[in-house]
Amino acid sequence: MNGFFWKDMKRSFLNVGFFAGMAAVAALLLAAAVNGTPPERTRSSYYILYNVFGASGFGPFAAVFPVLAYAASFCEEYQSGYYRMIFSRMSPVRFGRIRICSVALSGGVMLAVPIAAACIMAYTLGVPGVPQDSDQGLLDGTIMLTYIIQYGDWYIAVGKTVLGFLFGCVWSLVGLLFAVWTPNRYVALIAPFVLYESMWIGLNGIPWLNPIRLLRGDDVGSYPLAAGVECVYILIVSAFIMAGLVRRYRNG
Q1: How far apart are the first and last CA of the chain?
Q2: Chain-centre distance of CA 60, in angstroms?
C-alpha cells in the first residue's frame, strides 16, 4: 500500500496538467498584481489584493484549473482495465483513500502556491497594514479590517492561501467524482466547471455556501467558517467518490 501511495502521489504532481494549471493560475494572479500596482508604492496592499481576486479573471474559471492535474486519471485506468488489477490487490475503500488524498493534494497545491505568491507580491509592492491616504476606508465594514487590527497582515495572507488550497482540493475531487461515476475524460474535465458556475449563480444569496465567496473568504465574514464549509464539501464529495468506487468494484 505504501508503495502505491507514493507512486500515486508522485504521478499526481509530476504531470503536464499540474504544471500547466499552476502556470495559468500564476499568470492570471501575478499579472493582475503587477498591472494593479501604481508606481512608487503608493497604494495599499489590499487594493492590490482586490485587483488580484476581483479583476484578474481568475474567479469565474477557478474550478477549471485543479481538475487538470490528476482528477481524470481514473478515466484512463477504467478504459484500459487497469482499475481491475488495482482492485485485485486492494479494496476499493483503500484505493479510494489513496486516490482522494493524491488528487486533493495536487489540486490544492496547484492553487495555493500561486495565491501565496500573489499575496507576497501584494505586500511587497503595496503598503501593508490598515489602508491609509487614498485607500482609507477601503476595508471599512469588512472582516479583513478586523483581522488586520487583531492579528496582523500575515493572517490575511495565510487565510487566503489556506482557502485557495481547500478550494483546489474540493474541485479536484469533484473532477474525480465525475470520473468515477461517468468515466469519460471530457465529462470529468468540463462538468466541474458547469457545476461551479451553477452553484455560483444559484447560491448567490448564500455566501457561506457559494464557492467563489468561499474562495475569497471576505464575503463570508469569517475565514474559519469558509474553511470549515470547504472541509464539509470535501467530506461530502469524498463520500460520493467512495460510493462510486465500491459500485465499480461490485460491477466488475
Answers
A1: 21
A2: 13
Q: How far is CA 161 from CA 21, 57, 91, in A?
A: 17, 18, 34
Q: Which of the pair, 54 or 96, is modelled with greater confidence?
A: 96
Q: How many Å apart are CA 171 and CA 108, to the nearest integer?
A: 9
Q: Which amino acid, one-letter code, is at 38?
A: P
Q: Is 198 exposed, middle or buried (0-12, 13-18, 19+ CB in 10 A)?
A: exposed
Q: Kindly tell me the sign of the dihedral angle through the C-alpha atoms of 99, 100, 104, 107.
A: positive
| Segments making up each domain of the chain, as ranges | 2-251
* Residue 240, all three cell numbers: 460520493
pLDDT tens, residue by residue, 57-82: 899 999 999 999 999 999 999 999 88
Asked if pLDDT for residue 252 goes beyond 70, the answer is no
Q: What sign for the dihedral angle of Cα 215, 221, 225, 229?
A: negative
Q: List helix spans (H) across the chain.
A: 2-13, 16-35, 45-54, 64-70, 73-80, 82-89, 92-125, 143-150, 153-181, 185-202, 211-216, 223-251
Contacts 24+ apart (CB under 8 A), 6-11: 8/98, 8/99, 8/102, 9/101, 9/102, 9/105, 11/70, 11/73, 11/102
CA dihedral 67, 229, 62, 213 (to 10 degrees): 170
